[in-house]
Design goal:
680 residues, alpha+beta, Rossmann fold, Isoleucyl-tRNA Synthetase, Domain 1, 4 domains, 5-stranded antiparallel beta sheet, 4-stranded parallel beta sheet, RNA-binding, metal-binding, Anticodon_Met, methionine-tRNA ligase activity, cytoplasm
Length: 680
């Protein structure tokens, strides 16, 4: 594609849905890479806006509101505040973070819809949709549940089965029912407005596959698969009472479909920020528009939204859409509904002052072209082995040695050796490499190159050994530490897009003013005699117990999910009462209980069965300590033939219930009875 000379860059980040908090998947997939890019452009002195806001319409919000007995606006207000604060705490430097329930957004979306309607860009179409006769309302797909025709899941939604992941339409469900009233819905005719994407397919194919073949392969590939299937008209309205009303006669009780109104939020938020100057950012050909999104939004930002913008006629189209794939958590898909996530608002409480650690790890593991995985062990290792042992170690050594030998003042740079010249050449190259990678949206590799500055510094100090040389040649040490300090100052610039809090702390330690990207690679950032502030540790080690607590927290979440989703096993085939009556169930009192040597699972019981003392072995040692069962009255089968276990006779079977997590609970009686009492 021909390289354009843009005067300004408009960066948007996917609007997070105001139905929950923000987790590490969102941060890694969208907001950290977008923030890195924007901070880099600002450091270069570029004219840039960074636009985002909460997506606050749609069915999931109404479902949560109904479930909690509050209004949809209450739900939006709660999560908008939580999301906004989370982003602020992580240094995501939006120019504006607004919302789609704002007056400006309602006005902008309404004007946009009216323009397309007046131009005849929509088609009207009647279709049959499910209607709840008790609630007297058409049902959105998420208000319908039934049995999945693919996997048999009895709780599949009308748009997707969350068990097998298949996309569905409500009419495919077996035995559908309304989640509002529980009644069986009926099909009724309703009218909606559609955007004819099929008409836009020819120019969209050329625009993406030919004109933007340099986009990420995952983006182009997903678009191509949609083109291969053939684009179809897509509804832009819904029968719903939460959203922006459709401004057309005959559309009473209908709102704009959330996928249509949400991307217009980028425009309305810009308009809110710059009410008199917003149009040049959206309508001037010398503006570069870049969308940062996750892969689940590729179709909307590369096909649907551009089709809307083109149909309106006055807007620019995106120049790039660097979409990321998904981040998994401990080898499992991140899921809001299952609470399988690391939530940002919880992280800042549990890891105070360590936002940059998470930013660093998520960038190092960025799912740029394929799904990637976050583990707490890797989080710890990258912090301890890279941030602490490489970056933090070099900075600390350079500053502490300067404090020790030169009273915390930058020493002058003397005559350069060949070793010095090699180091200077090496770290000057880093600027070009980082810059090229950032321009190509390769943030993971760019951060790795920035870290190379610290590796260069560590090697330089290790090779030059200023702590030894000072005894014989203090002048030489002046040069070594001068160059080391210049490298430290360069690190503060190179890492500012990636680790803004650490760069700010480092600038404070070396008493350095804010510098621009163009200063990166210079060897005169700190002049001789410049006074440094007291050195502090830039990063601190994360101990095993801290990480183990997080792993345990996830394990507890998994157990809670299993318990919440537990369903009893199906009832077995009927048994004749005469057959059942042959089973002699009795109550016995536990006289002795001990572990069986060399058997992890077995406990040996001595039981008073009312006639004699009998020995029974039971595999419950994992769930009980022997002393917990002494004196208990347990239910056992008395007429099973004896069998040998670990060389010991077992005369019967003690009954236990199997819990959903596989644990066993011994069946006892709730008040004392005589040993040998029959159960029936």
């Amino acid at each position: 594609m021909e390289k354009k000379d843009f005067k300004r860059t408009l960066v948007t980040a996917a609007l997070p849905y105001a139905n929950g908090g923000v987790h590490i998947g969102h941060l890694a997939g969208v907001y950290v890479p977008a923030d890195i890019y924007v901070r880099y452009l600002r450091l270069r002195g570029r004219d840039v806006l960074f636009i985002c806001g909460s997506d606050e319409h749609g069915v999931p919000i109404t479902i949560r509101a109904k479930k909690e007995g509050i209004t949809p606006q209450d739900v939006c207000d709660r999560y908008h505040k939580l999301i906004k604060e989370s982003f602020e705490k992580f240094g995501i430097s939006f120019s504006i973070y607004s919302r789609t329930t704002s007056d400006v957004h309602a006005k902008t979306a309404t004007e946009f819809f009216e323009k397309l309607y007046e131009k005849g860009e929509f088609i009207e179409q009647e279709s049959e949709q499910y209607f709840d006769e008790e609630a007297k309302t058409f049902l959105a797909d998420r208000y319908i549940k039934g049995e999945c025709p693919h996997c048999g899941n009895a709780d599949a939604y009308g748009d997707q089965c969350e068990k097998c992941g298949k996309d569905l339409s409500p009419t495919e469900l077996i035995n559908p029912h309304s989640t509002i009233s529980g009644s069986k819905p009926v099909l009724r005719t309703t009218k909606h407005w559609y955007l004819p994407l099929d008409k836009a397919q020819p120019w969209l194919e050329k625009w993406i596959l030919a004109d933007h073949s340099d986009w990420r392969s995952n983006v182009v590939g997903q678009c191509k698969s949609w083109f291969d299937m053939g684009l179809k008209p897509r509804a832009v309205t819904r029968d719903l009472d939460w959203g922006i009303p459709v401004p057309v006669e005959g559309a009473e009780g209908k709102v704009m479909y959330v996928w249509f109104d949400a991307p217009i939020g980028y425009i309305s938020n810009t308009r809110e920020l710059l009410p008199n100057d917003w149009e040049k950012w959206w309508k001037s050909q010398d503006t570069r528009l870049v969308h940062f999104i996750g892969k689940d939004n590729i179709v909307f930002h590369c096909i649907v939204f551009p089709a809307m913008l083109k149909a309106e006629g006055s807007y620019i189209l995106p120049d790039n859409v660097p979409a990321n794939e998904f981040l998994n958590l401990e080898d499992d898909k991140i899921s809001t509904s299952r609470n399988w996530a690391v939530w940002l608002h919880e992280y800042v409480e549990e890891f105070p002052g360590k936002q940059d650690v998470l930013r660093y790890v998520l960038t190092a593991n960025a799912p740029e072209t394929k799904d990637n995985n976050f583990t707490w062990k890797d989080f710890q290792a990258r912090n301890n082995n890279e941030l602490v042992a490489v970056y933090g170690n070099f900075v600390n050594r350079a500053l502490v040695l300067t404090q020790k030998y030169f009273g915390g003042k930058v020493p002058p740079c003397g005559e350069l050796t060949e070793q010095d010249k090699e180091i200077i050449a090496e770290f000057r190259d880093v600027k070009t490499k980082v810059e090229e990678l950032l321009e190509k949206f390769r943030f993971r590799d760019a951060q790795k190159e920035a870290m190379n500055l610290a590796r260069i510094g560590n090697k330089y100090l290790a090779d030059s050994e200023p702590w030894k040389v000072f005894k014989t040649d203090p002048k030489r040490v002046e040069t070594i530490l001068n160059l080391s300090l210049q490298l430290v100052a360069n690190l503060a610039i190179a890492f500012e897009p990636f680790l803004p809090f650490s760069s700010e702390k480092l600038r404070s330690m070396i008493n350095m003013p804010d510098l621009k990207w163009d200063n990166l690679g210079q060897t005169d950032l700190l002049v001789a005699g410049h006074e440094l502030n007291k050195p502090e540790l830039l990063f601190e080690k994360i101990e095993d117990e801290v990480v183990e607590a997080q792993i345990k927290k996830l394990e507890e979440t998994k157990k809670a999910n299993e318990a919440a989703n537990y369903k009893a096993a199906p009832i077995r085939t009927d048994v004749d009462i005469e057959e059942f009556s042959k089973m002699d169930l009795r109550v016995g009192t536990v006289l002795e209980c001990e572990k069986v040597p060399k058997a992890d699972k077995l406990l040996r019981f001595l039981i008073d069965d009312g006639l004699e003392k009998r020995q029974i072995l039971s595999g419950i040692a994992k769930y009980y300590k022997p002393e917990e069962l002494l004196g208990k009255q347990v239910v056992f089968i008395a007429n099973l033939p004896a069998r040998k276990l670990r060389g010991l006779d077992s005369q019967g079977m003690i009954l236990s219930a199997v819990n959903n997590d596989g644990s066993l609970s011994v069946i006892t009686v709730d008040r004392p009875v005589k040993p040998g009492s029959e159960v029936g």
